[in-house]
Write a sequence for this structure.
């Protein structure tokens, strides 16, 4: 390792520098591993609640509303027909069949609708404004479909097939609350009430940097001992899925100078600043732990967390870099992903005001017998038979089994004090795609 550490020449203005919460110091006097809950609190304290920004509705999908949205118009905004048919006065069709002259044709979008004269009907299409004087629509199926004159064969109740103004949404009422996640129906209703730009929580910007001299980019031929780098794309995808914006720096070899140099180049260069630097690899107990070597004594605390996979963790604010928040994940792909799930995902989602920062958890029945190490919370990868509520392991507990992780549907949580689980035990399951 180079003896003199290159310093990070990072601008302070771009970097969020909220103070680390008190939780960050929780384990400073302890000697044993840090609990999962304590490390979650440390990571959560590093990502500040995000400010509001306006985005065009077409780009708002998946975002979280920053404030209540009040409807500018009612839905429906005017009385209109729910059917293709004839607008009538219901009382005039009390004794069918009734033949009436057709006064006007009202397609959807007609803005100069004449009132309905007594003793007449208007031909009207779905969504067209109900004429003044009409109080019901007779569907075309209950008529002879006439153009000049129409035979009406059924008596409508007053209000039949008429959509009332405001029956769905009242103008001036809150149509969606702050904290709502914008999925297709929410995007739809915002469009319907005339919203063009939506106030949402800004997405936290996360720089993703992997480390390892064995790593090469896809498209390169592998030499013996080399592997394709996978944590970077995986974590960047996880950041985006969690509601953040990922800047993938890809990877550097196990070299402190290159590692710090790459970070320094990019932390200041990202428009709008960086909310979190997320590294993977180089934090365990080996001889070439580049992340640990680069960050130790610089505001990032390296700890062992009582979990498996994902024991070695680091987090803090980097001295001399505008206090940029850093979370260092272990390198094994499954450890990296599980650590992201347990620590980083909830922190990012809380920061964007997501109503459910954590994965949906259910209780399932274990379909096999397991043993588990004492003193560590295990997060094992499972597939869930949702009909029977039975979960089984996919692959095994080892943290290099990325193919198995990719087939998993859930994480199965085995508490720290549980060392044996009989087949049929009730277990907590985090649903990965919920
Ligand atoms: P480390 O934590 O750096 O000691 O890495 C632990 C294991 O994870 C080693 O087998 C590494 O080759 C592997 N690993 C580390 N980083 C990555 C990465 N970005 N992509 C794929 N595998 C990695
Ligand atoms: Mg490594």
């Amino acid at each position: 390792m180079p003896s003199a550490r290159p310093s990070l020449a990072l601008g302070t203005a771009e970097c969020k520098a909220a103070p680390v919460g008190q939780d960050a110091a929780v384990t400073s006097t302890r000697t044993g591993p840090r609990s999962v809950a304590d490390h979650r609190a440390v990571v959560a304290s590093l990502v500040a609640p995000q400010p509001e920004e306006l985005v065009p509705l077409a780009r708002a999908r998946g975002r979280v509303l920053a404030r209540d949205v009040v409807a500018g118009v009612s839905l429906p905004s005017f009385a209109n027909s729910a059917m293709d048919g004839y607008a009538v006065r219901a009382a005039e069709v009390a004794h069918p069949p009734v033949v009436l002259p057709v006064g006007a044709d009202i397609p959807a979008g007609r803005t100069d609708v004449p009132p309905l004269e007594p003793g007449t009907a208007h031909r009207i299409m779905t969504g067209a404004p109900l004429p003044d004087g009409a109080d019901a629509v007779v569907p075309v199926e209950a008529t002879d479909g006439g153009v000049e004159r129409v035979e009406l064969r059924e008596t409508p109740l007053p209000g039949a097939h008429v959509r009332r103004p405001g029956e769905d949404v009242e103008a001036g009422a809150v149509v969606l609350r702050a904290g709502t996640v914008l999925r297709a129906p929410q995007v739809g209703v915002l469009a319907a009430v005339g919203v063009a730009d939506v106030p949402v929580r800004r997405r936290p910007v996360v720089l993703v940097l992997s480390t390892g001299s064995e790593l090469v980019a896809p498209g390169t031929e592998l030499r013996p001992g080399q592997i394709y780098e996978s944590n970077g794309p995986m974590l960047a995808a996880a950041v985006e899925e969690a509601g953040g914006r990922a800047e993938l720096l890809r990877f550097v070899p196990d070299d402190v100078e290159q590692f710090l140099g790459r970070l320094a180049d990019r932390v200041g260069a990202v428009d709008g600043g960086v909310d979190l630097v997320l590294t993977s690899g180089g934090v365990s107990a080996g001889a070439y732990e580049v992340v640990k070597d680069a960050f130790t004594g610089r505001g990032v605390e390296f700890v062992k967390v009582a979990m498996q996979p994902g024991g070695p963790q680091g987090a803090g604010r980097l001295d001399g870099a505008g206090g940029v928040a850093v979370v260092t994940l272990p390198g094994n792909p499954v450890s990296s992903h599980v650590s992201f799930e347990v620590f980083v995902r909830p922190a990012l989602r809380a920061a964007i005001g997501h109503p459910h920062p954590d994965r949906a958890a259910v209780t399932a029945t274990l379909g096999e017998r397991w043993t588990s190490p004492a003193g560590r919370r295990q997060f094992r990868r499972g597939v869930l038979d949702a009909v029977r509520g039975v979960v089984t392991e996919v692959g095994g507990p080892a943290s290099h089994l990325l193919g198995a992780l990719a087939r998993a549907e859930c994480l199965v949580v085995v508490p720290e004090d549980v060392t044996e689980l009989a087949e049929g035990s009730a277990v907590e399951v985090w649903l990965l795609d919920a």
